[in-house]
Specification:
heterodimer; A: alpha+beta; Phosphatase 2c, domain 1; B: about 280 residues; Rossmann fold; two-stranded antiparallel sheet; about 30% helix
């Protein structure tokens, strides 16, 4: 396998929660090599990240975008807890500048910050993060992936029509309204270490990976637990076999009461 | 029941009934402390401010909630928001945010990072002013809330059920409020009946009785009457109360008797807790 070049076939899908505009979407994605990876990518390795900004915080979408960018670009972020913490601290260090730019933008359009926004800006934004790096089988090592995560954004690996790996959640019942979150104003290192999850595993050609935020993650595990095959509609998405586009399919699941109404995001990566 | 998501397309409403009778001038907990009307108005202003901050997003304050404040005292039962919102029964939260009667500057003690406290000036928006005059027309206030909520439910039949929070220090003197409270609790959306919670503010120094699940330990008939007027807490509020170290059961009611300053804030916090803002 090491003699062949790996092809990562990437597709990203997202839809805001019902009742929100596309501008109000607060998840974020990043796929290497430049953050906008899409389609067939031939490379030795590939990094991908997904984040979910917490709705009850201000600038949550910006914070989620900042996190995926830093975790996507930082070479060591997906290797160890220490690498994770360094990437997080880099994101935190630029937050004041981000808020300053936002404040100036608002002033420029004659909509200065109001009293009810000041506490939220001072408190900061919150988001989950999941980042994974796929490496091919060069230098005698088998193809492998390493992932880090904090919160309930998930990665699912499907092989031979079954769920081969699930990270960091593996039980639909364990999703709650209060997952651990990364704060843009900083979190003490001990708390951070307690909540960071890491996982490494192998991969083979033919495997499919699904990186998703919590509404789709909870749906995926619930369907899998009742012996369904949740990857089927996701695998078909954007192909001739798809009955609906992603937004239409998510809408249908919401109507059926199967999926929570939330910003919903999927990065699908097929290995060839 | 009590599981509907709260969104801009499917908002819910909070109706605060504010006792403005003469006895609200007395000090809370007896002695020479703050007047009950001041403490209750402050707690309500703080709650409205926190709700607004919680719903503030980049594009503005999201109208997850519509708010009504109905004052009752003497021969008056009517809307009690001050300033430009005066006279209105139900106001979307974005308008609450945009139109406090005034922004006061208050001192708040915050940690100084070296184990001490330092005073910081904060903006304190005021929508409700303290008023204390005349008797306690509680039945009239509950009946007025009925008409506000009936109209609301006609327009929002699938909403998370409205919550009525009655803040009082005295006995109703316009008749037994049990019937009007029962009629309120029978007004329902597709997601369940209207929630009615009662808070009794104390003039003496008695220990508060917070969120009881039976009337067995209540000190008098009046406390039992308010208990029986109160709804049981839905699951998410009960779970939140438990997080606040309050002992709860499936029968726990939204009721506090002999409330002190801390339990007033806690009552408003638990009674307006929303689990599923979208």
């Amino acid at each position: 396998m090491s003699a062949q070049t790996t092809t990562f076939c990437v597709r990203t899908f997202w839809v805001p929660k019902r009742g929100s505009s596309r501008q109000e979407y607060e998840d974020a994605t990043w796929v290497g090599p430049d953050g906008n990876g899409n389609g067939e990518i031939q490379h030795q390795s590939l990094t991908a990240a997904v984040a979910d900004g917490a709705s009850e915080s201000l600038l949550a979408g910006r914070w989620a975008r900042r996190l995926v960018e830093v975790f996507g670009k930082a070479g060591s972020a997906t290797r160890t807890r220490t690498g994770f913490i360094a990437a997080y601290q880099e994101a935190v260090s630029s937050w004041d500048q981000e808020v300053l730019e936002y404040t100036m933008e608002r002033e420029e359009r004659g909509a200065s910050i109001q009293w009810y926004e000041e506490p939220g800006l001072a408190k900061g934004a919150y988001a989950t993060i999941l980042a994974v790096k796929f490496s091919d089988g060069r230098e005698g090592r088998p193809p492998n992936w390493k992932a880090v995560g904090l919160g309930d954004s998930c990665l699912f690996q499907v092989r031979d029509e079954s769920l081969y790996a699930s990270f960091p959640m593996d039980d639909a019942a364990s999703f709650s309204y209060q997952p651990p979150l990364l704060a843009s104003r900083g979190t003490d290192v001990e708390t951070l270490r307690r909540h960071i999850r890491t996982k490494a595993n192998d991969w083979e050609r033919g495997d499919s990976f699904y990186l998703v935020t919590d509404a789709l993650a909870a749906w995926f595990l619930k369907i899998n637990e009742i012996e369904g095959r949740p990857w089927e509609p996701l695998r078909d998405m954007d192909t001739h076999d798809a009955k609906l586009d992603f937004a239409g399919w998510v809408d249908e699941q919401r109507d059926l009461g199967q999926m929570h109404n939330d910003d919903t995001t999927l990065i699908r990566i097929d290995m060839y | 029941m009590y599981s509907a998501e709260i969104s801009r397309a499917n908002p819910t409403s909070f109706v605060f009934l504010l006792d403005q009778s003469a006895s609200m001038q007395d000090s809370i907990g007896g002695g020479e402390g703050q007047r009950k009307c001041d403490v209750v108005a402050d707690a309500l202003n703080r709650l409205l401010s926190e709700l607004t901050i919680k719903c503030a997003k980049e594009e503005g304050v999201r109208d997850y909630f519509y708010v009504s404040v109905i004052g009752y005292g003497g021969s008056n039962v009517g809307p009690a928001l001050a300033g430009s919102l005066g006279g209105r029964y139900l106001v979307p939260l974005s308008e609450i945010a945009a139109s406090p009667a005034r922004l006061e500057t208050r001192a708040k003690k915050i940690p100084d990072g070296a184990g001490g406290l330092v005073e910081q000036e904060i903006k304190f928006p005021v929508w409700v002013d303290p008023v204390a005059s005349g008797g306690t027309p509680m039945s009239g206030a509950l009946t007025r809330a009925q008409s506000v909520i009936s109209g609301w439910l006609t327009e929002h039949p699938g909403c998370f059920p409205p919550v009525v929070l009655n803040l009082t220090d005295g006995e109703s003197n316009d008749g037994d409020p049990t019937g009007p409270a029962e009629a309120l609790r029978q007004l329902a959306s597709a997601d369940g009946p209207t929630l009615v919670f009662n808070l009794h503010v104390s003039s003496d120094n008695s220990q508060p009785i917070s969120f009881p699940d039976s009337d067995a330990g209540l000190p008098n008939q009046y406390a039992r009457l308010l208990f029986n007027m109160s709804s049981t807490l839905p699951d998410h509020m009960r779970a939140y109360a438990q997080q606040q170290q309050i002992a709860v059961s499936g029968e726990t009611r939204g009721f506090v008797f002999n409330a002190d300053m801390t339990s007033i804030v806690q009552f408003l916090d638990i009674g307006t807790r929303a689990s599923d803002l979208r």
